[in-house]
């Protein structure tokens, strides 16, 4: 705009000095163009609106997500050209998305930018830049949109192969966990029949309607469901395997929370999570429903190992749960102290299951395994195979 005004002043001086009529007309035309462009630029800036929709910007690692942008032109003047620029950081694909648009008066357009969620995390939403100008290229306006919104990428849900926890009860072995003190007047729902179920629990109307054996489940006054304990104490992880082992434990916890979402499930962790106070343990007591699963997955999306919070703190928290609860311990190391702690919990009426992220080699590791077997505590070795991305659990 400044260069145009300088040109008009020079044309005016030349016209005054020479008295040529067409230079006067050219000067008036340029002056009118400058005033019109300035007026249009001001009006268009007031009428531009940009909104971002993050509805489909939350998902699991390894999937494609999208960011929806809606542009509005509320003025009576057309938007001749506009350029939308949206960048994404390296964990979200490291791409630069651009689109060229035009908007008619009172018009709107919607853009959908797809990006790849490479790894889990909670990331700030990158800024969006929108540039537009007049058809002659004399002016250019910019709108930069920032917000406190975040893009949440959950850990990937890997299939679990080989986990079959059994609860040892005085009257037999039951693969299905159920609540205590069931109320036969409060029917909660039905599930598929297993060989451990009594025929008295079969829902005969469902059998007649669907042809499948299903058993009734009632509401309980005390729940004895699943509780996941994830040990993210940094000193327990070997230096050379710190990252892969911690990610394996986080992915295993996410897969268990998703797999047990139809049952009461709880979650306790000593890591450094998003929004959690420093020096505290995340406590999510067993609860049934999709909301509990979302809470666990959101925490796992941004959690990291941290030092100074030993697993014994988690053991103390386990004693506040209902007797008969199944305690799933996910830990990279199993030593004599952990064997002693879970043995106490077993004698108190709980059913701990040790999910070992790394089998210790040597006599110490064999001794710990023998002690767990002697105390009738189930133990599993957790590994992941790259050929199918599944989590394998073996005895």
Q: Could you give a short account of the major beta sheet?
A: 8 strands, mixed
What is the number of E strands?
22
Rounded Rg: 32 Å
Main-sheet strand order equals 11-22-21-20-19-16-17-18
Order of helices and strands: HHEEEEEEEEEEEEEEHEEHEEHHEHEHEE
Mean pLDDT: 78
Spans of 5+ residues with little confidence (pLDDT < 50)? Answer: 167-179
Q: Gap between N and C termini, in Å?
A: 76 Å
Helical percent range?
25-40%
Q: Give the percentage of residues in beta strands.
A: 25-35%
Shape: elongated
Q: What structural class do the secondary elements suggest?
A: alpha/beta
How many helices?
8
What features would you describe in this structure?
By secondary structure, this protein is of the alpha/beta class. It contains 8 helices and 22 strands. Helix content is 29%, strand content 34%. The protein is elongated and about 110 Å long. Mean pLDDT is 78; it is low at 167-179.
Note the main attributes of this structure.
four-stranded antiparallel β-sheet; alpha/beta; 395 residues
Compact overview of the structure:
By secondary structure, the protein is an alpha/beta fold. The protein has helices at residues 2-18, 21-47, 204-210, 242-259, 290-302, 312-318, 336-347, 363-374, and strands spanning 48-53, 59-60, 64-73, 79-87, 96-103, 108-116, 121-124, 128-133, 140-145, 150-154, 160-161, 167-169, 172-174, 180-192, 214-222, 226-230, 265-269, 282-287, 326-331, 351-356, 378-385, 390-394.
């Amino acid at each position: 705009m400044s260069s145009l005004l300088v040109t008009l002043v020079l044309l005016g001086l030349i016209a005054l000095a020479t008295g040529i009529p067409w230079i006067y007309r050219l000067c008036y035309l340029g002056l009118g163009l400058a005033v019109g462009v300035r007026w249009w630029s001001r009006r268009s800036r007031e009428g531009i609106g940009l909104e971002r929709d993050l509805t489909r910007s939350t998902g699991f690692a390894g999937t494609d997500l999208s960011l929806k942008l809606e542009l509005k032109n509320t003025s009576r003047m057309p938007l001749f050209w506009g350029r939308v620029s949206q960048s994404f950081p390296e964990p979200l694909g490291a791409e630069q998305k651009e689109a060229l648009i035009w908007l008619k008066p009172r018009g709107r357009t919607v853009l959908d930018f797809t990006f790849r969620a490479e790894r889990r995390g909670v990331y700030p939403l990158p800024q969006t830049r929108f540039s537009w100008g007049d058809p002659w290229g004399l002016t250019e306006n910019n709108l930069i949109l920032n917000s406190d919104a975040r893009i949440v990428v959950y850990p990937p849900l890997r299939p679990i192969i080989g986990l079959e926890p059994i609860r040892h009860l005085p009257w037999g072995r039951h693969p299905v966990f159920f609540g205590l003190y069931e109320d036969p007047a409060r029917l909660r729902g039905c599930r598929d029949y297993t060989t451990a179920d009594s025929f008295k629990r079969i829902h005969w109307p469902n059998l007649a309607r669907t042809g499948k054996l299903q058993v009734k489940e009632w509401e309980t006054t005390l729940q004895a469901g699943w509780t996941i304990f994830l040990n993210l104490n940094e000193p327990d992880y070997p230096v050379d395997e710190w990252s892969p082992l911690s990610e394996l434990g986080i992915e295993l916890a996410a897969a268990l929370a998703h797999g047990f979402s139809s049952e009461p499930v709880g979650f306790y962790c000593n890591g450094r999570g998003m929004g959690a106070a420093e020096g505290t343990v995340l406590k999510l007591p067993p609860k049934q429903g999709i909301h509990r699963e979302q809470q666990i997955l959101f925490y796992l999306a941004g959690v990291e190992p941290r030092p100074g919070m030993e697993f014994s703190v988690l053991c103390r928290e386990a004693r506040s749960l209902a007797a008969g609860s199944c305690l799933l311990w996910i830990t990279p190391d199993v030593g004599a102290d952990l064997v002693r702690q879970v043995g106490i919990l077993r004698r108190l009426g709980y059913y701990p299951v040790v999910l070992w992220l790394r089998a210790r080699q040597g006599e110490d590791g064999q001794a710990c395994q023998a002690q767990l077997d002697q105390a009738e505590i189930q133990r599993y070795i957790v590994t992941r195979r790259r050929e199918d991305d599944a989590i394998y659990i073996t005895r």
